[in-house]
Amino acid sequence: MNVKIAPSILSADFARLGEEIKAIDDGGCDYVHVDVMDGHFVPNLTFGPPIIKCVRPWTEKVFDVHLMINPAQPFLKDYADAGADIITVHAEADPHIDRSLQYIRSLGKKAGISLNPATPEGIVEYVLDKLDLILVMSVNPGFGGQSFIESQLEKIARLRRMIGDRPIELEVDGGVSPATAGAVVAAGADVLVAGSAVFKGGEGVAAYKANMDAIRAAAAGAKAA
Ligand code: DX5
Ligand code: ZN
């Protein structure tokens, strides 16, 4: 299976968010990664359900909504109603992950769990049957443009072994670029989030496509090796 690319719109021009989403769609993205921050669980604030609902009509691609909010549970239905396809909650922000994952699926959405860099992979062991996606944070969440934390490669490899042949995607988020994508995919990731590495080098489809192609090429090189 080919590696999927999920550009993070955290690095897009928020004044033109709909057009930016159309541009990554036209450039060949697989998912649209939506970073929701609350200024409490993470030291930054972004957008919530009304904005997601506004931009939803700009693409038919999967909306991969990464909730960096605490609490998350009371807001899950709002994100589902706004048009999320995958809803990912942070292990560190929810004492009742099992319940939240069941609830996300009951809303007809795919359920994901995200782990901060210091959180061990074992936390997913007893919810594997309730998961559609595991998101490994390879930076401390809150900001785009940070450096990839190398220790997460081992975690990705361990999670790949834990997943086995279950239909769970393994997504990696933070500091992913052509320089790091090869190692991330070699460790076992199959969905790559990239913010600053996609939304750079000028605005528009051509630049974003070239940036995504460069990440795909680095990932393909690792798979062939
Ligand atoms: C960080 C977010 C990431 C971020 C990635 O909290 O979850 O999705 O936008 O940005 P880059 O790719 O620039 O590290
Ligand atoms: Zn993210």
Sheet having the most strands: 8 strands, parallel
**How helix-rich are the residues, as a percent range?**
25-40%
Structural class: alpha/beta
Enter the CATH topology name: TIM Barrel
Q: What string gives the helices and strands in order?
A: EHEHEHEHEEHEHEH
In short:
With 225 residues, the protein is α/β, with parallel strands linked by helices.
Keywords:
225 residues; binds zinc ion; eight-stranded parallel beta sheet; TIM Barrel; alpha/beta; globular; 8 strands
Topology:
Blueprint: E1 4-7, H1 17-26, E2 31-37, H2 49-55, E3 62-68, H3 76-82, E4 86-90, H4 97-106, E5 110-115, E6 133-137, H5 152-163, E7 169-173, H6 181-187, E8 191-194, H7 205-224
Parallel strand pairs: 1-8, 2-3, 3-4, 4-5, 5-6, 6-7, 7-8
The structure holds D-xylitol-5-phosphate and zinc ion (ZN).
Zinc ion binds at residues 8, 33, 35, 66, 173, 193.
Describe it.
This protein is an alpha/beta fold and 225 residues long. It has one domain: TIM Barrel (Alpha-Beta Barrel), CATH 3.20.20.70. It has seven helices and eight strands. Strands 1-8-7-6-5-4-3-2 form an eight-stranded parallel β-sheet. The mean pLDDT is 97. Bound molecules: D-xylitol-5-phosphate and zinc ion. Zinc ion binds next to strand 2.
